[in-house]
């Protein structure tokens, strides 16, 4: 089976008329198989105008086919050419091709002429075109003496070339002695005739080697004209002039061109300034797709010219002084061209037929017929033939009617010659397409199934599918004249076997072909447009879906060519990866997926971006004293538009190597007018910036030194302050070198008293930024000026600033100082301000010195530590915080200026009232017995008054960590030891202890202790633990728990729900028992065995009874419970304040079921 693949072409329209013949898509006459008798047919021949290389043998081609094989003969210049008589001429066996051996002897010119080949057999004779043989020529230039040309600047000039006439015509170009092409432009250009035209000359046109070259391509030779010397003399002034045409001459001209050629129209003008050329068509528009401009628009070309391009064309030359026009009238003639060329005709005996030969041209061509190479007028007569102008009509042909007919269409511009045979045969049908050919077609595309056939008379063709009895219907399929069956839109159900049947009166033939429909190849993930920065990596994805029976090949193209042979490009499955991207990598990347049946492609553009390249060609123009124009050429923007240019300057005189910002301009601007300062040696550089960043700096411009001038500004930060009571120190920020505007920078320092009629006193100083005026009154206001000057003059008059001479210590102390005690830790002080004159300086504020002389409780002497508070400005009162309660204090007040403090006011004494005491310094429980505990303590370190008594509160804690009743006990203030009796045996107690003054209760301290255990009771506990009944009870409890666990396990495996929450509530861990929100009681007390302190977070009610409450992160679990408040000295005495609480529980009222261990402890 032969596999045939449908060509990859565009889909045809599916909307077809029923079963039509498309003559334009098929062979209009059947090809006769070569095994059948047929007249000759010319298959190959040399061109009509055959220019040969005289250095090589001459080969004149003439090939033909026929049955029987044809014989060949030649004519030369209209007479028989006997090749047997010329030993240099041989004919190729089985062919009519001639070889003339001129390389061994003979000359090409001997064989110039018109040759024609005839191929003949028993059925007729075919003839070739007239083949004109001419040898190529490349003659030398004639010797001539060329005088040097001298002319003035601005004149026009034409350098003639006048190349020798060659065959074919040479290609002309101008070069110098170094074989470098001379540059051409709108001003200087080469005309179609080869001359070199100058619209106006310039001094740089001066040279001695203007050389015209002629290249003869056929012989690969170049001929050279003698060099022409041109000297242009520079004229001081040359007059401008309007345009005039150097070529063509006059206002109008005519041009004739043949149809199908290239129409070239030329206008070259001279003038000063150089004219610009425009083209229009007077009676129409120029054809868009066929019009091209060459030679700087001086040449208009229209390709594939037609008769419709005839008309008037106008060229317009224009400069600033005028405009001129030239009209070229174009006429398009035409050598003959075919309308209908005659085609071979195969007829069966007694059939009719026609040969049509129809041609056109300008002028109209003449049609003539020949039969077997002989004009039909003198050819043997054939009764079945009738001639009607450009048509030959055949009726009831017989075998003797077979012949070869030639149609010749000619006019003055050329001729056309066509051979067409009439072959009379009687042949049954035969199918020429190979049997069982397999066609594979992509779905939804046309399928063309071939059925090439032959027969005489012409067979009728029918198609069948899958051996069905009825022929294929014409509303779905298209049957072409050459037998091809077309399925306009092939679908999956089009797959199958198709049978072609050919019938005529002599017989029938058939052939099977097979059709398979494949899924189209698709790109389901296309590469996407990418913008990447130079040096990065980019990847393109191309995922292809295809028919599973086809094997695709995926290849990548760059700009429609192969990928660069570079290791940076890697293709991995569905991806193309480009690493280290550079500028050359930008372009269009195309993924092409090919199968044997179709191909698809998808493209994406890669734009490589980067920061711009540095600007270059910096130029300074319009150089003035205070400004200059800077221009530059932008560097490549690297595919990201330049947004702005940054200009920097260097002052080589004052700060060499240091670049400063000068200006910024938009990215569309390439010039900037820059403001300059005097006496600066400027250099400039430019940087370009785009969205990716800033370029490197350009090369520095040339240096430009501006002239010196007086300073534009004066020193800043001028101040006047005295460092001593009798001086004035004047300081300023000096000008830098850039601001000096010239050499000899100095400063004129001027001063006078503000309140007075004194004249200004001035001094001129240099290279300093400070001047000291001595002998001034103390703290007197002065007006001060500092003016810059240099060798060119003074800066503008500066504004005066006010300063003061030096300060001295204040002379007077504040008066009427009195103290108002606010509370035990805070006092308010008032004083009268001092007179301003006595301050002798800038008033900075008032300063209070205060210290504690002694406590009201102690009389011992110790080191006195003074404290200081300063109040800014003119305030006359202030607060003293942080005082100690129940203390004696002394204070005084002083005024402060910039020099220091004045004298102190008389000491003022005041006392602070009592406050609440601090907690006792320590609390220890010693000598525990069965029913008593001894408490020892240290008094508070800060009693803050006279202690009145101590308060002790305590309560028991049982084995379930619950608090018992609270006992409140008052102890005299002079005691430091106390024995508690009648306590419970082996019981833990919690103690709360604090002191009191007349101001209230102080902070508490807590402690815990346990009374001792009775030995007899302990021994009974051991005895009980070893009793058999107790052991049995414990075993029973253990067995009960085990049975309960088994039941729970079984229920859980069966999916039953176990009341975990209820059990957790009943057997919760005492360590994590939460507060019972309903009654506010605490969770159970922990750490009973190791005697650790209680957990933090207990609360104590304000009536000093301990209550059970939720544990939180307070300082201790069971602390003293007054509400949090501050004493008068600001100390915090209510550290353990809490929520609203109930009275303490009497006895053990745990809401929790006791554990076995707790039960045992309760029992003992």
From TrEMBL:
InterPro entries: FN3_dom, FN3_sf, Ig-like_dom, Ig-like_dom_sf, Ig-like_fold, Ig/MHC_CS, Ig_I-set, Ig_sub
All residue ranges annotated as the Ig-like domain in the record: 40-128, 135-229, 242-331, 336-423, 429-516, 520-607
Membrane topology: Single-pass type I membrane protein
Major place of residence: membrane
Cell compartment(s), UniProt: Cell membrane
Region (Disordered): 1059-1164
N-terminal signal peptide: 1-29
Gene3D superfamilies for the chain: Immunoglobulins
Residue runs in coiled coils: none
Keywords: Cell adhesion, Cell membrane, Disulfide bond, Glycoprotein, Immunoglobulin domain, Membrane, Repeat, Signal, Transmembrane, Transmembrane helix
Biased composition (Polar residues): 1148-1164
Pfam family, one: Ig_3
Gene Ontology biological process terms, A to Z: cell adhesion
Keyword DNA-binding: no
Biased composition (Basic and acidic residues): 1059-1079, 1101-1110
Top-rank taxon: Eukaryota
Keyword Iron-sulfur among record annotations: no
CDD domains xrefs: FN3 (cd00063), Ig4_NrCAM (cd05868), IgI_NrCAM (cd05874)
Transmembrane segments: 1029-1050
The Fibronectin type-III domain, residue ranges: 614-709, 711-808, 813-915, 919-1016
Cellular component, GO, one term: axon
Physiological role: Cell adhesion protein that is required for normal responses to cell-cell contacts in brain and in the peripheral nervous system. Plays a role in neurite outgrowth in response to contactin binding. Plays a role in mediating cell-cell contacts between Schwann cells and axons. Plays a role in the formation and maintenance of the nodes of Ranvier on myelinated axons. Nodes of Ranvier contain clustered sodium channels that are crucial for the saltatory propagation of action potentials along myelinated axons. During development, nodes of Ranvier are formed by the fusion of two heminodes.
Family that this chain belongs to: Belongs to the immunoglobulin superfamily. L1/neurofascin/NgCAM family.
Protein name per the record: Neuronal cell adhesion molecule
Organism name: Capra hircus
